[in-house]
Amino acid sequence: MIQLNTARLIIRDPQPCDFAGWHNLLSNTQNLRFTHQMQTHSEEESRSRLQSAIDAAHATQRDKWFLCIQPAQTGEFIGSIGCTTKPCHGGLLGGVGWFLLPEYQ
């Protein structure tokens, strides 16, 4: 399990208790206006995406990291940062992205 602590933030693997914030983040049309493919349209879809992120955190050969961001002082969910890899031309192609709830941008 990953957990990175700084003076201001905790960045960690997702847990089932993150559902409300996760759904809030992924179902927000304005927040995901440039990445429509990541937007969810129901609680069921958000719950499935959260479960996929939790499953990825427990994978033996991990190739996806979808981590929750929270302020160290409050511990509330404020966003997510992700990194993925996939094979490409004999190596790996990586992608990185992050999303914050609008009130924390």
Order of helices and strands: EEHHEEE
As a percent range, the share of helical residues equals 10-25%
Overall pLDDT: 92
Proportion in β-strands = 25-35%
Strand-pairing-aware structural class: alpha+beta
Oligomer: single chain
**Radius of gyration, rounded?**
14 Å
Descriptive overview:
- Helix content is 22%, strand content 33%.
- By secondary structure, it is α+β, with helices and mostly antiparallel strands.
- A 5-stranded antiparallel β-sheet has the order 1-2-3-4-5.
- It is globular and about 40 Å long.
- The relative contact order is 0.22.
Topology:
Blueprint: E1 3-5, E2 9-12, H1 19-26, H2 43-57, E3 64-71, E4 79-88, E5 91-100
Antiparallel strand pairs: 1-2, 2-3, 3-4, 4-5
In short:
The protein has helices at 19-26, 43-57; strands at residues 3-5, 9-12, 64-71, 79-88, 91-100.
Task: Please give a handful of descriptors for the protein shown.
single chain, 105 residues, alpha+beta
